[in-house]
Amino acid sequence: MSVVLRRILILLILAGATAASRRLWRREAEPTPSPQWPPFPAATPEPPGPGPVTASAADTPQVAWVEPAGGTCPTTAPIKAKTRSGIYHVPGGRFYDRTVPDRCYPSEAAAEADGYRRSSS
pLDDT tens digit string along 77-109? Predict the structure, then answer.
């Protein structure tokens, strides 16, 4: 008797799952209406900005970095920078000797101005 009841229970569960999946399938098949967005407000013209700015000789940027030669930095630009990590290494730093640079900077300020941060060690 228990085998018959177990089989009936399994058939009821399967029938319920089939009916639920059919309902779900029909719901997904119905097209959904496209959203209605409010119109954009009219654009107002921007007032003209200040006139062109002329740069003096002090404002013109100098060449901030140089290419490393043979995997080392020249003595005029000893700061080693890695572009992938965004970190620069200074002489005497923990990882300075093993770092193969992508760029070489003459000063820490030049490296920081280019978006790099100092190595933590």
Answer: 999 999 999 999 999 999 999 999 999 999 999
Q: Report whether 71 contacts 101 (CB < 8 A).
A: yes
One-letter amino acid for residue 105 of the chain:
Y
Q: Where are the domains of the chain?
A: 1-28, 79-118
Sign of dihedral through CA atoms 22, 23, 25, 26? positive
Give pTM, 2 decimals. 0.49
Decide the pairing of beta strands 117-118 and 87-89.
parallel
Which tens digit of pLDDT belongs to each residue from 4-19?
Answer: 889 999 999 999 888 8
Alpha carbon distances (Å) from 91 to 38, 63, 65, 99, 118: 60, 21, 16, 11, 12
Q: Is residue 116 within 8 Å of residue 88, measured between CB atoms?
A: yes
Name residue 62's amino acid: Q
